[in-house]
Amino acid sequence: MSPRPAARTVAAVDLGAESGRVVAATFDGHRLDLDVVGRFPNGARPVDGVLRWEFERLWGHVEEQLGTLGRDRSVASVGVDTWGVDYGLLRADGSLLDEPTCYRDPRQVRAMAEAISLVGREALYAATGCQTMEINGVFALLDDAHHTDRLADAATLLMVPDLFHHRLSGLRATEHTAASTSGMYDTASGTWATGLLDALQVPTHLLPEVVAPGTDVGPVVGALGEGPLAGTRVVVPTGHDTAAAVVGTPFGGPGGLFISSGTWSLMGVERDEALATPATAAANLTNEGGYAGTVRLLRNVMGLWILQECRRQWAREGTDLSYTDLVELATAEPPLRSVVNPNATDFLAPGDMPSRLRAYCARHGDPVPETVGAVVRCVIDSLALTYRATAEDLAAVTGEPATSISVTGGGSQNALLAQATADATGLPVHCGPVEATALGNAGVQLIALGELADLADLRRVVAASGRLRTHQPRASPAWDAAAARLRQLMTADDQARGLRDG
In the UniProt record, does the keyword Lyase occur (predicted)? Predict the structure, then answer.
């Protein structure tokens, strides 16, 4: 009998829009176990009138916790995943020009309208296969190029996960899955959409080399490399957190959809190649790069951000409720009384979200949710209905109806939302693992290190390392009527944003 392989630990740094964590992932040849070294909050704040991420503070947390982990045990490699679409700018000497700007800044709404007026929505989509949405990095870069002098001292543009890999290894390149969220990268060809950027009069000399997920870019450098992480490799994982979450998703079978549920809900299907057609353009579906040549055809849905902002507003008003409390209050409310389009621009920026939800309902003639429970129920039902619309649109463009939905991330713990999703879509909903993103990040590193064979091997290990919960659908005609109402709202909002003809 061959000896059991020694356990090996890698560090998965997983940064979301609301919080971040450093996770030690240990693989013993059979199971992949996670140990959270530490967590820390994240959020954008206004600086000089622009929403910015506190990169230096985040790096301080990451550096401290990686040091703690390295002093505790041997770490074979480290990799970072973050939210998508945002970038940072480096000077020629490698220093960060300023704190990266946030996709929720109102300037991006204006810049998207400008881009559509300059080249048309069709050209934006044809060049990239990327969903036209205000959050796309191309619109921030357009604003930088036309309305600020921010680019004057910039030499290199890096997506946010790549900024951390630059600090860890000195790498000045961007990772494929992160680049694919920017709105200036053609996922089908794996190249920057320089023709589009030329048409928008946006400089292309800032764009770096693109590397594949799973690339070993060398040892950790700096204080960490000279100390607690001496000998640790930097393995670039799937840098976009959704790509990592899908890598770590044990699908329920062929025809399964995924929902990576957190601040954003990204819902789609994993494919072998991009699908950018007039039908996907009309449905505003996006093609994002995945691991091992896969592509995720998906839609960005505003997700739990709306509920997160509601909770923050209620806390400011003196009512501090946990997410468990909020779901309990919503459970006592009748379903489908009020419906909103979660992707309406009303809900993009930070602020008094309960008031915005009430104003939206009043403007569209829906009952106004007055209580905390009614507001939360409105958000949950609206998300479930949006998942239904997305599932229908994906089936229409691919010709392949879904058979199930796999939900990962923090939102997989919300039983009310999971059951509402099953009821709305008529599909079984499999929930878990919660930590799919960290599992996917670590798994890509372990494949690069030779500990796992491939993506299928990783998903087999993930499925064996945790338990899933399944919610079966309950038929009700009320969901059909509410789904038709949501479609009306989506059409009206898209027309207002210039994404659909009036």
Answer: no
**Spatial CA neighbour of 177 closest among 301, 82, 262, 275:** 82
CA distance 134 to 136: 6
Cα dihedral sign, 473-479-484-487: negative
Q: Which residue has the tokens 């020009």?
A: 97
Handedness of CA 487, 260, 413, 58 (dihedral sign): negative
Measure the CA–CA gap between 325 and 295, rounded to whole angstroms. 37
Active-site amino acid positions: 241
CB neighbour class for 456 (10 Å; exposed up to 12, middle 13-18, buried from 19): exposed
Residues 293/439, Cβ–Cβ less than 8 Å: no
Q: Are 193 and 134 in contact (CB under 8 A)?
A: no
Q: How many other β-carbons are positioned within 10 Å of the β-carbon of residue 36?
A: 14
Token output for 274: 């991009």
| Domains of the chain, each with CATH number or no CATH | 8-241 (3.30.420.40), 305-385+477-496 (3.30.420.40)
Taking a C-beta distance cutoff of 8 angstroms, is the pair 114, 46 a contact? no
What are φ and ψ of residue 270, in 5° steps? -90, 130
Could you give the CA distance from residue 37 to residue 6 in angstroms, rounded to a whole number? 21
Measure Cα distances from 217 to 162, 209, 478 in Å.
Answer: 12, 13, 53
Q: Which residues pair with 407 in a beta bridge?
A: 259, 431
Cβ contacts of 308-314, under 8 Å, gap ≥ 24: 308/18, 308/263, 309/347, 309/350, 309/351, 309/353, 310/353, 310/354, 310/357, 310/375, 310/376, 310/379, 313/351, 313/352, 313/353, 313/354, 313/355, 314/354, 314/372
pLDDT bin (cut points 50, 70, 90) of residue 502 is low
| Six-digit token string for 322 | 């946990």
Q: Which amino acid is located at 467 in the chain? A: R
Closest to 9 (Cα-Cα) out of 226, 290, 164, 231: 231
Cβ contacts of residue 297 below 8 Å, gap of 6+?
268, 269, 271, 274, 275, 280, 285, 286, 287, 394, 397, 398
- pLDDT tens digits, one per residue of 250-282: 997 888 999 999 999 999 999 999 999 999 999
Question: Contact, 36 vs 21, CB < 8 A?
Answer: yes
Assess whether pLDDT exceeds 60 at residue 5.
Answer: no
First to last CA, the chain: 70
Does the pLDDT value for residue 237 go beyond 80?
yes
Written as six digits, the tokens of 168 are 């860890």
Helix, strand or coil, per DSSP, at residue 446: helix
pLDDT of residue 253: 80
pTM of the model: 0.94
